[in-house]
Amino acid sequence: MSLLEVRDVHKSYFLGNQEFKVLKGINLQFDRGEFVSILGESGGGKSTLMNIIGGLDHQYEGDIVYNGQSLRSAKPKVLDAYRRENIGFIFQSFNLISHLNILDNVMVSLEMTKLSHAKRVERAKALLERVGLKEHMRKHPNQLSGGQKQRVAIARALAGDPDVIIADEPTGALDSQNTKEVLEILESIAKDGKLVIAVTHSQEVADFGTRVVHLDDGVIHGEADLRAAYPVPDAEKRWSLNI
To answer: What domains are defined for the chain?
Structure first.
């Protein structure tokens, strides 16, 4: 059984009586240990698909199945729990809170957990160390480079230890060196047994993953396995957040 399935998903927007079809019968399967790139030009439906997979958009036809559970008719509380516990989002624009230092930016994602304040601090520090920002924890976003900001965003996405990371154009605002570093971090996340899905228009980003799916004008025009999915490590060998 796949970790995540997209089953015959259709999505339209309406302007008056005019219908604009954005997704036209999307079928995909995803597993742990994959780094899948959804490749296509702007306006092709990539971000819409990610919003549906991530539980941000509930107005569609078809179904999303996670761990064998259909989300199509799930109640709002179930959808909220799915998004909160299983999905981590990374955005091109970073979406950091400017008046907070980066440690506090990561801790924001832990406020809904049952961890004590001390444990939240410990976990946030461990995540920032993992992405190479141990020496920058007290800095604010405006003191960081674009690549460093994106690494903060990755740490924040990992805070709740989700199974799925959705990255929407994660390197779109970065230079070549920072792009390479961010892709290597995303690769390490997939190697840790998580599913990484990256939306991109960049062939360079797509070539870094294990599989690429070509999506254009709301239709899948093909997909290719670039390399085998990474073997899912035993629990004791994974990078642990069990603090």
So the answer is: 31-55+84-237 (3.40.50.300)
